Amino acid sequence: MDTALLIEKLNNTHSLNKDEALQLIKQGAQHKNLLFALAQQTAQKSFGRQIFVRGLIEFTNYCKNDCYYCGIRRSNKNAARYRLTQEEILECCRAGYGLGFRTFVLQGGEDYFYSDEDIAAIVRAIKAQHPDCAVTLSIGERSRETYALWKKAGADRYLLRHETADCAHYAKLHPAELSAQNRQNCLYTLKELGYQAGAGFMVGSPYQTAENLADDLMFLQKLRPQMIGIGPFIPHHDTPFKDEPAGSVELTLVLLAVLRLLFPHVLLPATTALGTLAPGGRLLGIKAGANVIMPNLSPQNVRGKYLLYDNKLHTGAEAAEALNELKREVASIGYRIVSARGDYTEEPWTQG
Ligand code: SF4
């Protein structure tokens, strides 16, 4: 089928088979204006011109894992490690609440220094102080019991990028003790437990093929997560992939638009990695159908240490205190940042 026709069909049916996905991955860039226009239209039907913000609190950069692409992998002896206390995390939330954030994302490496009960206590404390806010956890693969404990404590959402749906590709990015299957199982468990679950992948990670990306789109159609985070791969100088080229911004934008057309209501962030690789990258993301931005709420003195990849942005409009700057940027393309929890819903947006 002609690619422009395929894009129209995707816009009407919100589904793709693998051959169609491959065609869009390979040829979508040639039709990017059409893709971006339809993706923006779809995002506006679901969310109006609102952009949801999430306050990102990177509370530990210790990790027991050794993913080959990651700057805070356990083997990186050059990483300056830190952990935040419960009180420091609560302080970030208080500051964020004052700025207008109504979702807090607690992100960290897989750090067993914090017991399951410690995390549950942190979630409870945040919910007690800010009952009108959502809490998102992003702290890796755990057991069903642990996820259930945190859900009961009040956690609303969980981010766990599947990274790549293809088991062989996954094995090229991770040591043998980690498996694509376990990660995918965790995502299904999170959904079953009632979390709003977020999956996602890197674009342009080493050894990735167009077919791998098509498989990612197939996996997402099966899982049907409420959130999807994608960003270009960016190498980190202290990892085995230090000499690998970064992923393509253009292909990331094309995939964002395809994801928006596949999942009209999904919460889709314009990620920091996109902003790091391209000037104004997050605005480009919104123009490709994204509807979420996650500024950094971590304490100033640790922001430079959560270095998943080189040159990661953590100042300027990336910083939560600079919300006004971000509001201006977003307004310059006709959108507005709203102070709302921004939960997943399949209700179409109506002006309230
Ligand atoms: S990608 Fe996540 S799990 Fe892997 S080493 Fe980095 S922080 Fe740890």
Task: Describe it.
The chain has helices at residues 3-13, 18-27, 32-47, 86-99, 116-129, 144-153, 167-173, 180-192, 210-223, 249-262, 272-277, 281-287, 300-303, 323-331, and strands at residues 50-53, 55-60, 103-108, 134-138, 157-159, 196-203, 227-232, 292-293, 336-338. With 352 residues, it is α/β, with parallel strands linked by helices. It has a single domain, classed as Alpha-Beta Barrel (TIM Barrel). α6 (144-153) links the parallel β4 and β5 (157-159). The longest helix is centred in the first third of the chain and has 16 residues, at 32-47. The chain is globular. It binds iron/sulfur cluster. Iron/sulfur cluster binds at residues 63, 65, 67, 70, 72-73, 109-110, 140.
In short:
The protein is α/β, with parallel strands linked by helices and 352 residues long.
Q: Which key phrases capture this entry?
A:
binds iron/sulfur cluster; TIM Barrel; 12% strand; three-stranded parallel β-sheet; 352 residues; six-stranded parallel β-sheet; 14 helices; alpha/beta
Topology of this protein?
Elements: H1 3-13, H2 18-27, H3 32-47, E1 50-53, E2 55-60, H4 86-99, E3 103-108, H5 116-129, E4 134-138, H6 144-153, E5 157-159, H7 167-173, H8 180-192, E6 196-203, H9 210-223, E7 227-232, H10 249-262, H11 272-277, H12 281-287, E8 292-293, H13 300-303, H14 323-331, E9 336-338
Parallel strand pairs: 1-8, 1-9, 2-3, 3-4, 4-5, 5-6, 6-7
Helix pairs in contact: 2-9, 3-10, 4-5, 5-6
Bound molecules: iron/sulfur cluster.
